Amino acid sequence: MVTIKDVARVADVSPSTVSRVVRGEGKVGKKCRAKVQKVIDEMGYRPNTNARALVSRRSELVGIVTPALHKPFFGSIAFGAETAARQKSFQVMMRNSHNDPEHEIDAINSFREHGCENIILHSKSGSVDDLKDLAEKIPGLVFINRFIPELASRCVWLDNVSGGRMTADYLYSQGHRDIALVSLNLNNDQEERIRGVRQFFQSKGIPIPEENIVEHSPVKDVVSNIEEYCVYAVKELYKRNANFTAIVAYNDEMAVCLMNALFDIGKRVPEDVSVMGFDDLDIAHKCRPALTTIRYPIIEMSEYATKLSLQMTLEKEDIVQRTHLFMPSLVVRKSVKKIDL
Fold this sequence. Notes:
By secondary structure, the protein is of the alpha/beta class. It has 3 domains: 4-47, 434 Repressor (Amino-terminal Domain) (Orthogonal Bundle), CATH 1.10.260.40; 56-158 and 298-326, Response regulator (Rossmann fold, 3-Layer(aba) Sandwich); 160-296, Rossmann fold, CATH 3.40.50. The chain is built from 13 helices and 12 strands. The protein has a 6-stranded parallel beta sheet with strand order 2-1-3-4-5-11, with helices on both faces. The chain starts with a helix and ends in a 10-residue tail after the last strand.
């Protein structure tokens, strides 16, 4: 097995220099770094993470906790975190929380038992007090997709209100004045997105009637999955005689299911009803019609969150005065029809 000393001998540098190159830290000149990296590649050297953990008394691991890794959105979080962790020669561990605060704590405790100090946590259901307590105990704990004012320097989050306004602005520019909102009453995201939509239309003097808004909680015992819920939501809107030319969905998965539900009752998208999503997942450009949506830069956010976590533990960087807010952007495709006024 090739050791760090072997690499140092061939590269004619000290083992500590090789260590800095491997970890991507510390001051190493460009030429020296390139020479050492070439030797590493040629000799096939792989760092012994167990040995390094014994020396540093910490594991070179990044733990990722999300509600459901099989969902594309949360899989994107895992992908971004793994990409950033690999750049620092860190390994990743992943756990599902199933939106259960107890499962979140169990996953975090499991990571800590392995010496993991770097944890990326997607928590919508955990209490602020519990999360504050965890932040005091775990130096590299970073929260993604949630803003907690008391823990702002550890939060990487999206401006969902601006995303809602972008949605409304685009629909308005395409002639839509009557819209419906279909959402999930599960966390603050949908409230913020709806608030942004309302803000824009209110600025134009256009109220959104309550009958045009369908949320998940009133039918939580009626449907068991997103497909059934979207069938219910479409039927509910027409049962209420809601007047709308476009539907704004909570996310892309819901938008595609709504398009299917509309198709099943004989409605064409976008000829009869326009539909907009949120997230810009792969499914958004693979469905037909391709979905107009708001891009949620979740992979970039996850990479950033992981780098932030590693900075907090490896570089001991002062992050107290830093904020980590990302902005969404509009992606125009084919699911919104322009209405001539």
